[in-house]
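seq as requested:
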Amino acid sequence: MSMSGYRSSFVIALFGFCAALITFSGGARAEDWPYFRGPERDGTTTASLPDGWGERELEIAWEASVGWGFSAIAVSDGKAFVMGNQDDKDILYCFDAESGELIWKESYPENRWPRQYEGGPNASPVIHNNRVYTFSKTGKIFARDVEDGSVIWEVDTAERYGINTTTWGLSGSPLIVDDRVVFNAGSYGIAFDKVSGEKVWRNGTGPGGYATPVKFERGGRTMLAMFVRRELAIVDPGDGNVVARYPWRTNHDVNASDPIVAGDRIFISSGYGKGCALIEFGGSEVWSSTALRTQMNGAVLWDGYLYGFDDSRRLRCLDFATGEVRWEQGGLGKGTLIVADEKLVVLSENGLLVIAEATPEGYNKLSEKKVLDGRCWTMPVMAGGRIYARNAEGHVVCVEIQ
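struct tokens:
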């Protein structure tokens, strides 16, 4: 299919939907962070930060060592969950979120797979209805009881369903969609009943993409924005059928940053020199640019502006509507960030935790503290008056903010 024909398929499939679009809003408590990218799955939280950040010294409340990996922390109902790899075993840890006391840990055999980076788990735990769901680099899924870590159900998607892994291992975190849990694995995803673990659908065996599926509502229908190997695909979570496609290929077939759905548009971005684009649901490209090439961690949309780390190792702010760069800041490497209480919470690549204003007027740092050494590619998490962060080696810190 030609490029123009390929994009036309995006137009035809989506044109029939109602023009109104509402991004998904979850029901998680504001003080929790149970899902990848937060309670609303968009890198933001409404939880409050105290005033006076310019004068405040950030204090580390507790620390732990969990093994190699890039799994982000999930926090729910007073418990903090995180994964790491030691001695070729993936280990899921459950800590008391306030004290750092280990409540339980469970493991299973899995190669650390340090291919051009440290290796270890890429996906993050997801907490839902007293269960914690995890996903390994080779496609092993576990649903465990949050109280004691006992296995409720498990499946090896490679062994049972022929799912092929990606060059650097499967990376998208689980996504709960109604009565099922969906993974960006295979060509266009695979879904299981979240209670029983029975397969609901599978669309191809892959390899797929590295991003987590993004759920949204359009015209009264729940849909998924699935950033797969060489395209953005709009997938029906009911049966796994692809209803629209938009081509997007990088040099290494790596699409790792979650799409951002807002209004009647979708923002996508990839590293390796590719760039970013804002696409209308009618199929046309509003703008495209190389100003924001997010290799691993997605940008965050806040109040009409995008904040994210470019391939150039510079933090940038872009106007969502036009793509115009409003400001940039160096010295933070390929870091990551979230938005909390209208502020940027940034973790630099070398472990500097920074609080800055989330404003298009310029980079205004309010507070900073060196909290980790080594490589930090995993987003910080804010929940219950604390910020949680980790490095590739598995050093986890909990920083008091109240």
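The domain at 3-400 is CATH 2.130.10.10 (Methylamine Dehydrogenase; Chain H).
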